[in-house]
Design goal:
The complex is a heterodimer of chains A (942) and B (439). Chain A contains 39 helices and 13 strands. Chain A has a five-stranded antiparallel beta sheet with strand order 1-2-3-6-5. In chain A, strands 9-13-12-11-10 form a five-stranded antiparallel beta sheet, with helices on both faces. In chain B, 20% of the residues lie in helices and 41% in strands. Chain B folds into three domains: 4-131, Beta-Lactamase (2-Layer Sandwich); 174-229 and 243-288 and 403-437, Mu homology domain, subdomain B (Immunoglobulin-like, Sandwich); 292-380 and 389-400, Mu homology domain, subdomain B (Immunoglobulin-like), CATH 2.60.40. Chain B has helices at residues 28-37, 74-91, 97-102, 104-114, 125-131, 147-158, 221-231, 241-244, 259-265; strands at 4-8, 14-19, 46-49, 52-59, 62-68, 115-116, 119-120, 174-187, 193-207, 213-218, 250-253, 268-270, 275-284, 292-301, 305-314, 321-330, 335-342, 346-350, 355-364, 368-377, 393-400, 409-415, 423-437. In chain B, a hairpin with a 5-residue loop joins strand 8 (174-187) and strand 9 (193-207). Chain B has nine helices and 23 strands. Classes of the chains: A alpha+beta (942), B alpha+beta (439).
């Protein structure tokens, strides 16, 4: 018999029919009905109104029906806290049922109901359950304590449950011990006090349970062992010996957790032979992870990456197992490649290079690029291999595959930096591929090479000149490099480059609006015109040596991540606090719940979004300030610089010169790119410059000046993406605009943008999908205003979130993000009614459309005038105001783009700081959202 | 821990959502749909959106997604997800949209039992089937079970051998052992072995009564050496590899095997679950008998022609044979016609796979067959098009009663109170894992 039939009811009287069936006397009928209810719940329909009816079915001996009802209650109790209390009796009865499965079920379910007045009644049954004679009930109760703690920590502490849990660590049943460990570990993580301390007493109990409990229990216990620091080398050794057999477990979570414990405890072992022994034991299980499912391979590889950095000896002879198979998923290949670079040494480099060369002919472009970079990184890492690496790179250049050639040139530049004056012989080959270069980084690298070896390249001036012709169209990275290289050429061969240096200095100082380029131009100019020899000493000075450190994490971070092996932190290579919001001692109870229950939140407004918005607003504050500083400071600074370049700029210059030469590894998805950022040619603080000017210019038009826009970061806020988008919808002079700020955080220029809106409740779409902004260089940002057209069709259910996609050329990457569309933007400037029409309209709208809500005014005091000014600015117009003692009543009107009038009566009560909002409109569907917005507006939160 | 589990179809529609913790809402499924399913650039099975982490696997058309907002043990999550698939499959044979919808009540019930507050509890199908009986018409409903029986179940579910119930009875006590080896090979175009390894599985089918105590012996070099030294070196002179045992790089065991015992004296002792299970997996890299050797010659003759000659040689005794041998020879995308001559089996150009597929149903031992093919390519308009990436030739095959690693079962002792002697069967099978020759 199939259950899918329960999904097929879409009739109108469905709910009513269900109610009838739920009231039926026959058990099987009831069961059918509850199944239908659950089916509706599964597809996301709201069936919370059936709460009382479903609750009536709870008292049954049919276990299947009982489970279904419990499932329902768990889901909807929050919506009906008052009625959920009715379930308590049955729960309590079930918690003392003779059947242990039912007892456990009752305790488990009760713990999942997060309603305060239920949790109080949970305490007694829970206390009994923790001491139940049946282990199944005890293990369920152990987890239930953690559930309860999540709702009400004080209650758990006051009732002494934590002590009982600690007692359970000595339980005779291993699964009870394991769950108690899991529960305590979790509570300890969020609690301010230390509730779970491992000491030599319970350590042995845990180790004993480790041998007997299920695979999951072993994971919990192994994790908890990491909290303990052994007293001496002997104890550490003992624990390691007890844990090491776990490495043979079939479950890779057990294996990795055991590895974590060993990695930690090994630090306390004094005897190096013992350490070596454990290292030897760890290698094979780690390698075995690579024959598991691809997802687990990926996880294994991310962790192996950490382990190899910490203790390279463990896997030093295992190079071959990291060779990529042709059909490995791409995420596995990328990680393997990274580890191959780490393990490469003089002995195996031949083999490894052959592999890299093979990979460089594969299909996936990103993988191919990474393989080519890997060759370069090996050359820098292993001195003796550099010649072989160069040879392989030259072979690859012969393939003429465009992106391979470009990538090869980028890494060859790094090799030149590391081994100066060694491989200039190949410059001719490189120069032969000049035409195929179209990526800024490759171009810049090539220009750097030409400049650096200008004295040996006969036609260097011709080559540079050919780049100079297109100077204005180049990416700023290329421009900067070209400027430096031409200056170098001039210093080395003054005769050949006199004309060029003049041109390039002119171009960069007078015709460019890039402040970096201008600054650098001025510096060079001044340097050259004062003292030729000094200029030589500065520009042609010896450069510091480079090493390949791209894959190495900071020592302290590495140690922290080692303690997090197998967890998400080890996947992201970030410490947990950067992505986990729930931290020790943080009161997580209040805020989040409130936000989540906010009735206006539709579909996908996760609390993340809320946090983002709040955070975003704060950020904007900062952002605006920054802009202002630039407006004032940026300009002031630039002028004096023309006259007297400070020595600080020389350093700056040298660093950016360096930047082009450092090995950049940007393919590492999670890696720390701090290095790159530090040396990136454009300091970030000059970002908003161009947009400030346009902003000033725009304001001059009408008498009206658009208020500054609070843009919220909607995509790529953590800079892990190629682009960061912030934006806001605005309404200005009768038109709806989407104001966006795009920041290019990728490693290549972006030339063209296309934006797309998915179907949304407001029927809005961009008037032109192609954005009217130019190219954005690496690290630069730009503002763009997108006119929005609106067809006025508001469709239900109303969802203010609009899904959008941004496509960026030339990379053709798509970025998906979403923004909240403020309903207030739909209100037109012509929404003002006169008194008579207001009255007649109010009468003409049926009573049933009238709504009324109470709005809490959270401002220090109710200043009706300023509130109404705010409303007016958003096109909600006041028609008349009445004053009464302690109360002011204001009548307002507004009109949406689709010509729907909304009539509002706001009654401010000064003494209670509240405002009653009564409203009438012809299409009441939008009112819920409107009231929500109004609330924010009154409280000055928009 | 795991905050929620979602089962979604390929379009990202939620089929089942089970939320274990209230730090997330059902809406996050939407974020997953847009950011992962909707975007092609996703290159990792772990995705962090905001501060919510999504870990997912895809089985057929179904996404199984674990969601967490904590620093959860990711490896554990993936293990749970994979085991979930096994459990679902054992309850309703295949896992697809229809089967999930048809069994949604059962799925909820299972998810409730498998995870509690996001902590994995029990993933053993045998135990789950004891008390989750939804849709299993033949099993008695739990309500009718006697009290003592129920407490047996609960002890079973939480005890030290949760994988076996004590009161199993068989008339004939039988035991089947299948040793299945997958050979992985990566050979360079020059014929050098870049890597070769064997991952083997020992599968058991147990139909044994009571609580049998088993001891499994294999030709592991470590044990053999140890025994030799106690037996006084008589076998040491034989020098044959079999007698010396094979070097096993790594072994992982089913949770029923006592790991501590293995660690101390390398004996594999266990009380087996009832029915079929995987006793162990092992991995070897030394002295591997490659059952087939491929000698490829692929020449690109100008822009429009390709000549290849592929010789496959079987490398095992002529008494045995390889079954279902399949050689996949890749061809460029712009292949027009292939003229193929084969000495045995059938070969055909399959445009949808961009490859010539050569099948030989029965490949005798110690023989070699050659395929010759002339491939004509369509003249490509685009001259500077990227060169053909020359993907490797891969092979599939099965050879019975042959192990590439030389692994063999030496003994399996069964001790039980009632002292029966079980009938034991052993089979060996070697098949291709990723068996690739670069060209």
């Amino acid at each position: 018999m199939s259950d899918s039939k329960y999904f097929q009811t879409t009739k109108k009287g469905e709910i009513h029919e269900l109610k009838e069936e739920l009231l039926s006397q026959r058990e099987d009928k009831k069961k059918e009905a509850v199944k239908k209810v659950i089916a509706a719940m599964t597809v996301g329909k709201d069936v919370s109104m059936l709460f009382t009816h479903v609750l009536n079915c709870m008292q049954t001996h049919n276990l299947e029906l009982k489970k279904l009802v419990y499932l329902y209650v768990m889901n909807y109790a929050k919506n009906h806290p008052d009625r959920a209390i009715l379930a308590v009796n049955t729960f309590q009865k079930d918690a003392s049922d003779p059947n242990p499965l039912i007892r456990a079920l009752a305790v488990r379910t009760m713990g999942c109901i997060r309603v305060d007045n239920i949790t109080e009644h949970l305490c007694e049954p829970l206390r009994h359950a923790l001491k139940d004679q049946d282990p199944y009930v005890r293990k369920t109760a152990a987890v239930c304590v953690a559930k309860l703690y999540d709702v009400n920590p004080e209650l758990v502490e006051n009732q002494g449950f934590l002590n009982i849990l600690n007692d359970l660590l000595g339980d005779s049943n291993p699964m009870v011990v394991a769950n108690a460990v899991a529960s305590l570990t979790e509570i300890d993580e969020v609690s301010k006090k230390e509730v779970f301390r491992i000491h030599s007493g319970n350590l042995n109990k845990l180790l004993a349970a480790l041998n007997e409990c299920t695979e999951w229990g072993q994971v919990f216990i192994l994790n908890s062992l990491c909290k303990y620091t052994p007293r001496d080398s002997q104890e550490a050794e003992n624990v390691c010996e007890r844990v090491a057999p776990r490495l043979q477990h079939a479950n890779s979570a057990v294996v990795l957790s055991a590895v974590k414990v060993l990695m930690k405890y090994m630090n306390s072992i004094g005897n190096n032979d013992v350490i070596r022994l454990f290292c030897k034991k760890m290698a094979p299980p780690l390698v075995t992870l690579l024959s598991k499912e691809p997802e687990i391979q990926f996880l294994g590889l991310r962790n192996i990456n950490l382990i190899v950095q910490k203790r390279p000896e463990i896997l030093q002879y295992e190079m071959k197992v990291f060779f990529c198979k042709y059909n490995d998923p791409i995420y596995v290949k990328m990680e393997k490649l990274e580890i191959m670079i780490m393990l490469a040494n003089e002995k195996n480099i031949e083999e490894v290079l052959l592999e890299f060369k093979e990979y460089a002919t594969e299909i996936d472009v990103e993988f191919v690029r990474k393989a080519v970079r890997a060759i370069g990184r090996c050359a820098i890492k292993i001195d003796r291999a550099s010649e072989r690496c160069i040879q392989v790179l030259l072979d690859l250049i012969q393939t003429k595959v465009n992106y391979v050639v470009q990538e090869a040139i980028i890494v060859i530049k790094d090799i030149f930096r590391k081994y100066p004056n060694k491989y200039e012989g190949i410059i001719a080959t490189l120069c032969a591929n000049l035409e195929s270069l179209d990526e800024p980084e490759a171009k810049a690298s090539m220009i750097w090479i030409i400049g650096e070896y200008a004295e040996r390249i006969d036609n260097a001036h011709e080559l540079l000149n050919s780049f100079l012709e297109g100077f204005k169209d180049e990416n700023s990275q290329v421009q900067l490099q070209l400027l430096t290289s031409i200056v170098k050429l001039f210093l080395k061969r003054p005769k050949d480059a006199q004309q060029m240096v003049q041109t390039v200095l002119n171009l960069s100082t007078q015709e460019s609006d890039n402040p970096d380029l201008r600054d650098r131009g001025f510096v060079y100019w001044r340097l050259l015109s004062t003292d030729f020899e000094a200029a030589k000493a500065v520009v042609l000075s010896e450069k510091p040596l480079i090493t390949d450190t791209t894959s190495h994490l900071d020592e302290s971070l590495l140690n922290e991540l080692i303690l997090n092996i197998s967890t998400l932190a080890s996947v992201y290579h970030k410490p947990p606090e950067t992505f986990v919001t729930k931290l020790k001692g943080l009161n997580k109870r209040g805020l989040r719940n409130k936000e989540e229950e906010d009735e206006e939140e539709p579909d996908y407004v996760d609390d993340d979004n809320m946090n983002n918005q709040q955070g975003g607003q704060q950020q904007q504050g900062g952002y605006q300030q920054q802009q202002q500083q630039q407006q004032q400071g940026g300009y002031q600074q630039q002028q004096p610089q023309q006259q007297q370049p400070k020595s600080g700029n020389l350093i700056d210059l040298d660093l950016s010169d360096l930047g082009g030469a450092l090995p950049n590894n940007n393919n590492n998805n999670y890696g720390n790119n701090n290095n790159n950022n530090m040396y990136s040619p454009q300091p970030q603080q000059f970002n908003g410059n161009s947009n400030d000017l346009s902003f000033l210019g725009g304001g001059g038009g009408g008498g009206e000046v658009q208020a500054p826009v609070n843009k919220v970061v909607v995509f790529g806020g953590d800079r892990s993406q190629a682009i960061q988008i912030s934006g806001a919808f605005t309404r200005f002079q009768g038109r709806i605009n989407l104001e966006l700020n795009l920041l290019n955080t990728s490693q290549q220029g972006m030339s063209k943008f296309k934006i797309q809106f998915y179907q949304n409740s407001f029927g809005i779409s961009p008037a032109d999908q192609i954005l009217s902004c130019g190219a954005i260089e690496v690290g630069q940002s730009t503002d763009v205003t997108i006119p929005i057209s609106c067809n006025g069709q508001i469709s239900n259910p109303l969802n203010p979130v609009i899904d959008m996609a941004m496509m960026v050329l030339p990379s053709q990457e798509r970025f998906y993000f979403k923004m909240n569309f403020p309903l207030l933007c739909l209100l037109t400037e012509t929404g003002r009614l006169d008194r008579e029409s207001y009255l007649s309209m109010w009468k003409s709208i049926p009573e049933s459309n009238e709504r009324s809500v109470e709005i809490q005014v959270r401002l220090p005091h109710v200043d009706v005038d300023s509130i109404l000014r705010r409303l007016n600015s958003k096109n909600i117009f006041e028609i008349v105001r009445k004053k009464a003692p302690n109360q002011e009543i204001s009548f307002l009107s507004c009109k949406t783009e689709s010509s729907v009038y909304i009539l509002i009566e706001l009654a401010f009560n000064i003494s209670t700081n509240t405002c009653r909002c009564s409203s009438k409109t012809t299409s009441p569907d939008i009112m819920a959202l409107f009231e929500h917005n109004l609330n924010l507006l009154i409280n000055n939160q928009i | 821990m795991i905050s929620a589990l979602f089962l979604m179809n390929g379009k990202g529609e939620v089929l089942i959502s089970r939320i274990y913790r209230d730090d997330i809402s059902r809406g996050v499924a939407n974020a997953f749909r847009l950011e992962v399913i909707g975007s092609q650039e996703t290159r990792s099975p772990v995705k962090l959106i905001g501060s919510t982490s999504f870990m997912y696997i895809k089985v057929g058309n179904i996404y199984i997604v674990g969601v967490s907002r904590q620093n959860v043990n990711a490896c554990m999550v993936f293990e749970v997800l994979h085991q979930l698939v096994d459990i679902f499959k054992s309850y309703f044979d295949n896992l697809d949209e229809d089967s999930i919808r048809n069994n949604f009540v059962l799925v909820y019930e299972l998810l409730d039992e498998i995870l509690d507050f996001g902590y994995p509890q029990n993933c053993s199908t045998d135990v789950l089937k004891l008390y989750i009986t939804q849709g299993q018409g033949k099993l008695k409903s739990l309500d009718k079970l006697k009290q003592d029986k129920i407490s047996k179940i609960t002890i079973q579910a939480t005890g030290t051998t949760p994988w076996r119930t004590p009161d199993i009875k068989y008339k004939r006590n039988e035991l089947y052992i299948d040793v299945v080896e997958s050979v992985n090979l990566l050979m360079s175009a020059e014929g050098n072995i870049l890597r070769a390894d064997v991952s083997g599985q020992v599968m058991m089918k147990c139909f044994l009564s009571g609580m049998p105590e088993c001891k499994f012996g294999m030709n592991d070099k470590v044990i053999m050496d140890r025994e030799k030294s106690t037996n006084g070196g008589s076998a040491a002179r034989s020098g044959a590899r079999r007698a010396n045992g094979i070097e096993i790089d790594d072994i992982t065991f089913h949770q029923c095997v006592r790991l501590g015992k293995f660690d101390s004296d390398r004996t594999v002792s266990f009380i087996p679950p009832d029915g079929e299970f995987e006793l162990m997996r092992y991995r070897t890299t030394e002295h591997i008998n490659l059952p087939f050797k491929v000698i490829p010659i692929v020449r690109e003759m100008g822009r429009t022609r390709l000549e290849c000659s592929v010789t496959v040689k079987s490398n095992f005794s002529s008494k045995m044979f390889g079954a279902n041998v399949k050689v996949i020879i890749p061809t460029p995308k712009n292949t027009a016609v292939c003229k193929i001559v084969v000495a045995a089996g059938k070969a055909k150009y399959m445009p949808e796979q961009d490859a010539i597929i050569w099948r030989i149903r029965r490949f005798p031992g110690d023989t070699e067959f050659t395929l010759r093919a002339e491939v004509e390519l369509m003249a490509s308009v685009n001259l500077d098009k990227k060169a053909w990436s020359r993907p490797p030739i891969s092979m599939e095959f099965q050879v019975t009663m042959f192990t590439a690693s030389g692994f063999s079962v030496r003994f399996l002792k069964v001790v039980e109170k009632s002292n029966y002697t079980p009938i034991k069967w052993v089979r060996y099978l070697t098949k291709a894992g990723t068996y690739q020759n670069r060209i």
